[in-house]
Specification:
six-stranded mixed β-sheet; alpha+beta; globular; FAD/NAD(P)-binding domain; 2 domains; about 30% helix; Elongation Factor Tu (Ef-tu), domain 3
Amino acid sequence: MTEKLHIIGGGMAGSEAAWQAAQQGAQVVIHEMRPKVETFAHRTGHLAEMVCSNSFRSDDDEQNAVGLLHWEMRAANGVIIQTADRHKLPAGGALAVDRDPFAESVTQALTSHPNISVSHEEIDTLPDDGQWIIATGPLTSGKLAEAIASETGAEALAFFDAIAPIVYADSIDMSKAWMQSRYDKGETEAERTAYLNCPMTKEDYEGFIDALLAAEKTAFKEGETAGYFDGCLPIEVMAERGRETLRFGPMKPVGLTNPHQPEVKPYAVVQLRRDNALGTLYNIVGFQTKMKYGAQVDVFKRIPGLENASFARLGGIHRNTFLNAPTLLDDRMRLKSKPNIRFAGQITGVEGYVESAAMGLLAGRLAAAELRGETLPPVPATTATGALVTHITGGADAKTFQPMNVNFGLFPPVEGLKGGRRGRKDRYKAYTDRAKADWTAWLG
């Protein structure tokens, strides 16, 4: 292969696409505008920097679609998932990572690969020739977004992603808080005590909700409208939907026993998850927010155990752009009007680190095959990767298309299995067994 593959964006999808294509023998150039051109959310110039949560979510490959996607990426020698495994933190059955060493390791793996080079400049037009993958994610630069919108003839859809705050561990009052994973989940003591819990009485909770609703919020810019993805709602938006919403969401008190007061069941619980290997930083789980910084400090210090908390990072909000992929992309992830350009990652309408990396993995393999003059067979829709790409490139209703996490609802049914909640365990195991066999065959 003499023609190079150019990838715009060095996030999860772009990094994985570059790795997969390079491993297939393609010469790859990653065009990453950072650190020359900064974004609101990024702190470094590293590739695959994690800007929101540090979790890749469930690692259960038998009963969870996200865990199955982990399994498929491992089977394909994915650089993102393999690096995540090396920098894993205790997270009670989830795959959480030490974010800075993770990004540094991905960057080292890619920059030391003989088939990969990195160019730090902003690409602001759609190339007319050559093989390209656009994997610019939720923070696609304004000029490139305009070029995409001009080519597709439609405004890019948008919603808003919010970033959760991070607290210094030594500022948390452990006479009120305690360490425990919900339902003591995990095979080791570290896993079973992976989360830090702050309990609330009914009075605490009601006061917290009042303060949350009254807090000053970040104003939208002129012309912006807020269309939130339900999996990443700011906590104040959840609270606006009903005072009990948070108590049945990120603040649910189930599966936990307060050792300080074992006879008293908390009315609500705020959970924090370790954010680095040293255990010096914890992020507040599910507490994405668009409150102004001063308001965040006032509101979060109402949480028992966080009265004297110091924050390494406060929450924020940023615009997230994605394509109407069912209308614009073909089943090979190519832009129908410019088939020399593929899209990958969140910009295609998948949501989450894992899903973004998986779409990068597929785009990289498809592009490398095309450069060799070959055509890979379609990925079976029975696999997690195949279910996702089938959904975004035609399975979803284009009129109501919104970002989607991987879930078993995207998979073709397995005949003869019982529906409903009672049959769910057997059904999910059948989905994952079938997917593993079909993914292994496709890779072969």
